[in-house]
Every structure is written in structure tokens, then in C-alpha cells.
Specification:
- The chain folds into two domains: about 80 residues, Arc Repressor Mutant, subunit A (Orthogonal Bundle); about 130 residues, no CATH class.
- The chain contains ten helices and seven strands.
- The strands form two sheets. Strands 4-5-7-6 form a four-stranded antiparallel beta sheet. Strands 1-3-2 form a three-stranded antiparallel beta sheet.
- The longest helix has 18 residues.
- It starts with 5 loop residues before the first helix and ends with a strand.
């Protein structure tokens, strides 16, 4: 579910705090085919109106998706209205406060290990390349004006630093970045790739070790160790 904006992911997780919705989501997600309101109501022993209300709320919160299809194989005039069917809208649900993106880190690290193993290149080089390419892909088709918005979508919480650059108030990789400079290198490469994808010079991204920034007091705990500086 990481493709959804952070606020929507938080809302989706909050929606599952309701026991009935949690059970309905688990039921629909476990079925091989889309289910009707009658199916869901019968499976959980709920009134049809109750099942319908909660199913539609799950759709609103991005957890379920809807399709309309005539059942029983009948088509054409007189075959009745298409039935409203529900299916899982996401394979899984995850969110964190502050926002983190450990899934992305895991994907990039695994990709780097595989390339290092098969091609014999240093794992760090493979990781930096994979992160740069992922950043480029995330920004593809977007212009320089969309760069800050892209960083916000990725969880960095960018803010104007008053000098023509951006401060990144949140580190999406905070826990694993602590004590592991290679994660900072991965982060810097991702940001450089995103900058390049938006048509901004990659030299405008400066990544430093978390420990060095903290020693100088330049970054607060949880803050990204990178700065976006004008070239």
C-alpha cells in the first residue's frame, strides 16, 4: 500500500480499527473471486445493510475495490442489473508515524545483493545505482516544479531552507540509517536520481553521514541527512 499518499494509508489503517470492517476486509481479501454484499453478510452473520455500510466504507478508505458484473451467466435485456462485487484493493496495509519507507530500502538492498552476486560488482556500487535508477523512475515525466511535491509524497517533509534549497525534515529510512552510512549513500542516490528525473542538476543533492550532522547539530533526530542545495 506504499503507493498511496501517507495520509490515506493512515486513514486506511485507522479504518481497520473497527472490528467489523477488519473481519470484512480479511474475508474479502481471502476469497479468490470478488464477493457480493450478500456473500459477505452471510459469511460473517451480519445484516445485509450492516455489511453494505462497512464494505462501502472500506472502498472509500482504499482497502477494497468494486466491480459490477451480472451473475448467473445471463446477459442482455431482462437479465437484471449488474451486481456490485467487492475485492481487495491492496495486497497489504502498512503505515507508520513518522512516515517511513523500509519497504523501498529492502527492495533496493535485495536488488543490490542480487546484482553483486550475479555480476560480481561491489554491493555498495550496485545499491547506489539501483537507488539512483529508482529515484529517476519515480520522477519520470515530472518537471522541476514538482520536485518538492515528489519528495513530500516519498515522506521527506521538504521545507524551504531560506537559501534557495530544501531541508528534509523526515528520514524515511531513519532506523536503519543510524550507524549505517551505506543507507545514507542509498538515500543520497535516490534523491539525486529523483532530482535528475525532474530536470534538476544531481550535484544539487548533498548527502552526508548522519553521525557527522548530529555532531555539528545540523540535523535533529529523525531528520534526513541530505540537503537539497542550489547549484
Amino acid at each position: 500500500m506504499s503507493g498511496l499518499p501517507w495520509a490515506r494509508r493512515i486513514a486506511a489503517v485507522a479504518s481497520l480499527g473497527d472490528e467489523t470492517r477488519r473481519k470484512l476486509f480479511a474475508y474479502v481479501a481471502s476469497e479468490d473471486a470478488p464477493v457480493s454484499r450478500n456473500d459477505a453478510a452471510a459469511a460473517l452473520g451480519l445484516p445485509r445493510s450492516t455489511a453494505s455500510f462497512h464494505l462501502d466504507r472500506l472502498v472509500h478508505d482504499g482497502l477494497l475495490a468494486v466491480e459490477f458484473r451480472k451473475l448467473g451467466g445471463r446477459e442482455g435485456p431482462g437479465s437484471g442489473r449488474p451486481a456490485k462485487l467487492y475485492k481487495a484493493g491492496v495486497p497489504e496495509v502498512a503505515a507508520s508515524v513518522p512516515e517511513r519507507n523500509y519497504d523501498l530500502a529492502a527492495e533496493l538492498l535485495v536488488s543490490a545483493i542480487e546484482e553483486s552476486t550475479t555480476a560480481g560488482v561491489p554491493a555498495r556500487d550496485a545499491l547506489v545505482r539501483a537507488a539512483y535508477e529508482r529515484g529517476q523512475a519515480a520522477a519520470r515525466g515530472q518537471g522541476a516544479a514538482a520536485f518538492a511535491e515528489l519528495l513530500a509524497e516519498e515522506g521527506y517533509r521538504p521545507e524551504d531552507d531560506g537559501e534557495g534549497g530544501l531541508m528534509l525534515l523526515n528520514c524515511p529510512f531513519h532506523r536503519i540509517a543510524e550507524g549505517h552510512a551505506v543507507v545514507c549513500a542509498m538515500n543520497g542516490a535516490f534523491l539525486a536520481g529523483a532530482a535528475a528525473g525532474c530536470g534538476i542538476a544531481a550535484q544539487g543533492v548533498e548527502a552526508l553521514a548522519v553521525e557527522e550532522l548530529r555532531k555539528t547539530g545540523a540535523a535533529a533526530p529523525g531528520q534526513c541527512c541530505a540537503r537539497i542545495r542550489p547549484v
